[in-house]
Each structure stands twice: as structure tokens, then as C-alpha cells.
């Protein structure tokens, strides 16, 4: 049986290029396309594809949100990300949303075909560049977790108020402790987090989403 493929991209030239290529693959049938995430959800319901090739940056609804909704609403449908974006804010959310594969648009077409067949078998396939970045992200998160776990509960409280932009006096009043105690906590925080000042501490904390 042919694999039913839905292509989602906001550039028709990309869609037409993929359609033309997959016409040469007897086991893959392009059953539709969509120009954004909202259309993708409508098309998934209408044509019931096996695989969705999903871009990320699109108007109205991006590919990450569309992937999340497809995986939740149509669990039998598998989503492969096909994008030009290889940054942390694209990769991690896409995988968390439920994408079974992640390929960049510079991928060899035959490798993309192999990714589709692998996805049908439930295998996760990602571009080598993405795999390398994932390893870096995981190592970075492990380091961040280590730094956060070194802090005492009171130091975490003080750090939280630092991220709110509060002064030492404001933190002292909020936590009902002395100004000197706040300064001691901040000194310990900077040392354990291995940062130079409270601004760096706040930025590092926000970047890693410690208090989300």
C-alpha cells in the first residue's frame, strides 16, 4: 500500500518541488498540501494522511503548534519536521510536540524518503546536524540543572526575586530577612551558578526557565 503524504509549507515552490520529487516514488502518494498550521489540521481531517511533512515558521499557526494538535487529535498520523531552522527554540519544542522526525531542507531527497519509511515503522530519524545540537542542548540542560540543584531553598527564593528585578532592600522586605542576609545569599548564588553578577544570574535563570 502507498504511504499517504501531506505536505505543509508556506512556500508553494517548496510544495511543488516535493510533489514533483515524490511522483517518482511509487510507494508514496502526496494526498494534499497546506500553507499553514490551521490548513494542516483541516487537511489531516479531510485526507487522513499517514505522514505529514511539516515546516515550522508559517503564518496563522506555526508548525510546532500544528504538530502538537495533530499528535493529540490524530495519534495514528506521524509528523516529520522539514525546515530550515536548527536553533534550540525550534528543535526542542518540535520534539516535545511529538514530531517523530526532524530534517533540514538541505537533506538529500533519498534520505528524506528513508525518513518517511522509517517513520511508518515507528522509528525516529533526525538530521545529523540536529542530532549534534541535541547532544549539546542536553549537556547544557544537565549543567543548568546541576547549578540550580546546588542552591538552597532560600537561595532559590532570592534568585526568583532577582529575576523580578527587585533590589536587595525589596527582597529583604519581601522575605522578611535582613539586607545583609540577602547580600550573603546573592554572593552564594553567584558562586554556585558560576556567574559574575545578578544580571547574568537573572538572564541564565530566565533562559533555562527555572521558575516557569
TrEMBL record:
Superkingdom field: Bacteria
Record domain Response regulatory: where: 4-120
The UniProt record lists the keyword Transmembrane: no
InterPro entries (UniProt xref): CheY-like_superfamily (IPR011006), NreC/VraR/RcsB-like_REC (IPR058245), Sig_transdc_resp-reg_C-effctor (IPR016032), Sig_transdc_resp-reg_receiver (IPR001789), Tscrpt_reg_LuxR_C (IPR000792), WalR-like (IPR039420)
Pfam families named among the record's database cross-references: GerE, Response_reg
Residues recorded with modification 4-aspartylphosphate: 55
Domain HTH luxR-type: 144-209
CDD domains assigned to the protein according to its UniProt record, in alphabetical order: LuxR_C_like, REC_NarL-like
Keyword terms, alphabetized: DNA-binding, Phosphoprotein, Transcription, Transcription regulation
Coiled-coil ranges (or none): none
Keyword Metal-binding applies: no
PROSITE patterns (alphabetical): HTH_LUXR_1, HTH_LUXR_2, RESPONSE_REGULATORY
PANTHER family for the chain: TWO-COMPONENT RESPONSE REGULATOR
Protein's name according to its UniProt entry: Response regulator
Source species: Paenibacillus residui
Source organism phylogeny: Bacteria, Bacillati, Bacillota, Bacilli, Bacillales
